[in-house]
Amino acid sequence: MTITRKLAAAVAAAALVLAGCSSELPAEDPPAGGDTSAPDATQSEFFDQAEYERQLGFRDAQPLGPADKPWEQMIQPEMVDTTQYKKAGGNYHLCFSNAAVNNPWRQVGFTTMQEEVKLHPEITKFTVLDAEAKDDKQISDIQSLAGQNCDAIIISPNTTATLTPAVEAACEAGAPVIVFDRGVNTDCPVTFIHPIGGFAFGANGAEFLTEEVDAGGKILALRILPGVDVLEQRWAAANEIFSESDLDIVGVEFTDGDAAKTKSIVADYIQREGQIDGVWMDAGATAVAAVEAFQDNGVEVPAFVGEDQQDFLRMWVDEGLTAVAPTYPTYQWRTPVIAALKILNGEEVPSEWVLPQPVVTQSDVDQYVAEDMPPLHYAMCGCEDMPGYPEPWK
Amino acid sequence: MQEKPLPVRATPPEPRTRRFALTPTVIVYLALVVLLIVGSVLVGLRGGVLLDQAGLLNIFTRATALGLVAIGQTIVILTGSLDLSVAYLVGLTSLVAAETMAGQDGMIVPGVLLALAVAAVVGLVNGLVITVLKANAFIATLGVALILRGYLEHNYTGPAGDVPRTFQHLGYDRIGPIPVAALLMLAIAAACWWFLTRSRPGYHVYAVGGDIEVARLSGVRTRRTILTAHVLCSVAAGFAGIYLASRLGSGAPYVGTDAVFDLESIAAVVLGGTLLAGGRGGVVGTIGGVFILATLDTTFDALAVDPFFKDVVRGVVLITAVALYARRMVGRSP
Amino acid sequence: MRLRLAEGTAPVLVVLVALLVGLAIAGPAYDSVEGYLALLKRAAPLMILAIGQYFVIVSGGFDLSVGALVTAGVVIAARMIDGQESATAWVILLVLAFGLLVGLVNGLIATKLLVPSFIVTLGMLLVLDGAVFLWTGGAPRGALSEGFRQFGRGSVDVPVLGEVPYSVLILLVILVAAALFMRSGTGRALVATGDNDQAVSLSGGRVDRLRLLAFVLSGVLAAVAAILLGGFAGVSAQVGEGLEFRAITAVVLGGVLLGGGRGSVVAATAGALSLEALFTLLNLLGVAGALESAVQGVIIIAAVAYAALGPRTRFRTSRQPAPTQ
């Protein structure tokens, strides 16, 4: 024990002594991650009134750009000049640090991104490092990409606060940095691409239930797991809306994204409450299992909030459910590639590229059902018109 | 470095082998060299360089956190025990360190010490459950892991705490291509090597793992040895948590479980030639195992291999290596 | 009969009865047969996994690959069936054969190459997790047929009891078969192998074959669990996540000694049902999900401590000849 204690002190001391040698630590000049991350990181309550209102505002705003290509649209953009990154002549080397491909959403998205790259002959090399959902590996990955002569670096961060320093380091390497999906606590990337956001997603579902379910109706909220910012925002918004409604939230449960556990939890609630009038979910991966729990218990399926996975959309149509599917569109995986090329062409891009976030409703669900696609394929992939479709997604 | 993988006391002397005996430790390092050569060739064929500055930096960085956890895991495995709670403990200690520091330079030392103290307490609990409650190490540490998980899930919803910039140098500084933290990890490995092969409690670790009854009869305080091993293992995991906190800039509850440190560290230890049943092996082999895993990772990244394929290779490598060691051991014993 | 029950079975049955009584008090659904049948249906896959894990543990090993095997089974079934009803029968056979094959490989590596089962099955876990998703490109493909799902989802009308889920019937058949098997000479030899393999070997038992058999049984039963879980909840990439640890926990909760040589299969199964009943009860009582795992941790430590410390006191009080086996 004394050895380890001494070593502990030595660790700190040695770090200070050796600090002079060389460091991957980004320079302090831009607002450092450590400083800005503090309020966000320690905040356990994920609700943010201003951001909530901003996102609800985005929902009603008219996006700019071609309506048939939502992945190129932008909502209320503030354009930035990118001439400093202009590099003529094509032969681009694009680099991508991916958080993971460990779930169907990311799988569909990554496939879409790879196909998007194929559309552009000027991209001659596309280097991808997969962090396998490990923050520490993604930090190394980004460092590694920063040293590989990339013409642009695309980053899909695994977590927000912890990857901020690595993204700052990548920015200092010189190539333009594009962040999408989850954000980071720094504005050094040229553009940050994301759909409207978790508050809007959560609100869409919750508003649907307040409209469809009578006052006093019993609502069961199913969440995947705590602590994931994107999912926490969805619940925070829904919770806000529910708390102002007359609905009775009988339970908020974590399912771990496990279909069997979801089914068991829903069955327990059906038995405990006698009747459930609406189900809100923060992600649709287990929506079908939840619907089946009602069917297997011989109870009518209540109003449901799902997502745009094919299995849920098919069930929705086949069973004539009353449902809504907010989406976190996978077509956003196309946008970073498009943005990278714009930047390398010296064209303006928005500093925050907010993509529209469609909602599948009773009236248009039919057009999103694709019988021949896998059950966990996401309808909102924006990939139907791509040359290779549908083979790579199958 | 040369290592005596055999206990000096309390086990029968090994029959003398020829001078260049292929002990598991030697095999590990031979395999590492072969892997580096094959990897360099394959990456070279694709027009890249594996062992340039960035490549070396990558390998060392990847080896650091896993190395720290695996060093500790080696000690408990040598006693015939095992620790499945390290993954959650790494997350917990990263949070303790980052939250104590709270962005202030003055709190670095208290943060580090508190994190190590928390780790030591968890190790003590592991050890007590095993020795006093007589629970099998697998279940005891799985139980403690579940309790830690409950604590983390109940109290945290994501990264928390704030590591001051000064301390982040620990995670980011390097000398040439070698990160300072990797050197510190190797220093800790060397300290453990010394402890295991040159100190009396270290001999006892091998004795207990070799045959606990024989050890007890020959006067070794087996209970104390197992307790010490578990405390040291947890402290090593604590170091990993502190290192990751400095690297991430904050504490993260799932940093250990995302990296699957529990199973990965056990894999690295047995890959390094330590017998899962205890009594044979050592830290030197473990470090070799860790570097094999890190090199595999880096090579696969350079070759743009599908991440799912990596798991397949890791599994096959693990089984093959241990099968190889088992064969040699059978071949050598009369 | 009394002796058999006495060997570690009584405590877990007491715990189980207590939990079931708790359920009856806490949940209105548990005042009828259907409520308990629903619980059994939910618990059936874990109970079947626990039976398989019991064979391996009692003979002195571990099987960490069952969770990955369950996922593999479901993903393979979905891709091979691809929604076609006509493919159901042969795909079910395929999944069972796959489980058998994985068990065989585990067993052969553990017995012939002398790799500790913990490592073999850990390696197998990695290989299966990687290979299955390498094959399907990261996410499950295809769909299960209604016929396939019947086993985990459907039920059959039984006189007196009413609608009994297929999975409960399958569980009962397997449990009875396992209990009979453990009474046979082979079953007893399996336990003896875990207790002292050299003694078994000296008295003419084929230790390697017995251990191999345990792994094969575990693999096949994991495939059965995959069929039931896929049927119960549909295609999912996470269906088997963590099941290996839960199955081991269940077996240990049933008083089976890790390292082998002691414990009964009925108790191991009861351990699995207790675990599932505990989760249900915690859920009914509204215990926060986060604390669930902490409660589980405390309970398994307590169970093992009891099992380890209990027998010594028993030994002292009753010095019957040949207290084990």
From TrEMBL, chain A:
Belongs to the bacterial solute-binding protein 2 family. Keywords: Signal. Coiled coil: none annotated. Residues 1-27 form the signal peptide. Gene3D superfamilies: 3.40.50.2300. The keyword Signal applies. It is found in: Cell envelope. Residues 96-348 form the Periplasmic binding protein domain. Pfam families: Peripla_BP_4. This is ABC transporter substrate-binding protein. SUPFAM superfamilies: Periplasmic binding protein-like I. It comes from the Bacteria.
UniProtKB/TrEMBL annotation, chain C:
The keyword Transport applies. It is found in: Cell membrane. The chain crosses the membrane at residues 50-77, 89-109, 115-137, 158-181, 212-235, 247-273, 285-309. It is a multi-pass membrane protein. Keywords: Cell inner membrane, Cell membrane, Membrane, Transmembrane, Transmembrane helix, Transport. Pfam families: BPD_transp_2 (PF02653). Its main location: membrane. CDD domains: TM_PBP1_transp_AraH_like. This is Autoinducer 2 import system permease protein LsrD. It comes from Actinophytocola gossypii.
